[in-house]
Amino acid sequence: MVAPSEISDPHRRTDPDGLVRVLPTDATCARVARAQVAETLRELGLPPETVADVQLMASELATNAHRHAAGYGPPELWLTGGDGELLCGVFDGHTECVLPGYSWTSGDHGRGLDVVATLAEGRWGRRPARSRRCGRPGKLVWFAVPVPPAVAERLGDRAERAAGF
Question: Where's the Histidine kinase/HSP90-like ATPase domain (predicted)?
Answer without folding.
Answer: 25-92
